[in-house]
Amino acid sequence: QVQLVESGGGLVQPGGSPRLSCLASGFSFSVYTMSWYRPAPGKGRELVARISSVGGRKTYADSVKGRFTISRDNGKNTVALQMNSLKPEDTAVYLCSAEEKYGGQGTQVTVSS
């Protein structure tokens, strides 16, 4: 059974640095490009960050470039999103995806003082 389970969200103060994690199971994690998405008003969803199967290629949305870092551990079937310098506009449900074929339920990040 394929599962992607996100964790690490919560209420964070502006400027905070939470780390999101996505634990995958039930498929060959190491061969999939992994992505983090969040809803975008009027656009459906926004690609936040993407990492290639062996981690050599990373892509970021302009809105998070320099603040967020995506990484993966193929030995542990996990992909992480280190979020720094959070802003209120980063408030969203963050969803983990395996090449848009598999997806998780998401973890809520709320940035508020």
Number of distinct beta strands:
11
| Mean model confidence by pLDDT | 96
Distance between the termini: 39 Å
Which stretches are low in confidence, meaning pLDDT under 50 for 5 or more residues running? Answer: none
Proportion of residues in helical segments: under 10%
* N-to-C order of helices and strands: EEEEEEEEEEE
Largest sheet, if any? 7 strands, mixed
- Rough outline: globular
Q: How much of the sequence is in beta strands?
A: over 45%
Taking Cα atoms only, what radius of gyration do you get, to the nearest Å? Answer: 13 Å
| Class per helix and strand makeup | mainly beta
**Individual helix count:** 0
Explain what this protein looks like in three dimensions.
The chain is built from no helices and 11 strands. The model has no long low-confidence stretch (mean pLDDT 96). It is globular. A hairpin with a 6-residue loop joins strand 5 and strand 6 (58-60). The strands form 2 sheets. Strands 2, 4, 5, 6, 9, 10 and 11 form a 7-stranded mixed beta sheet that branches. Helices cover 0% and strands 52% of the residues. The protein is mainly β. It has strands at 3-7, 10-12, 19-25, 34-40, 44-51, 58-60, 68-73, 78-83, 92-98, 102-103, 107-111.
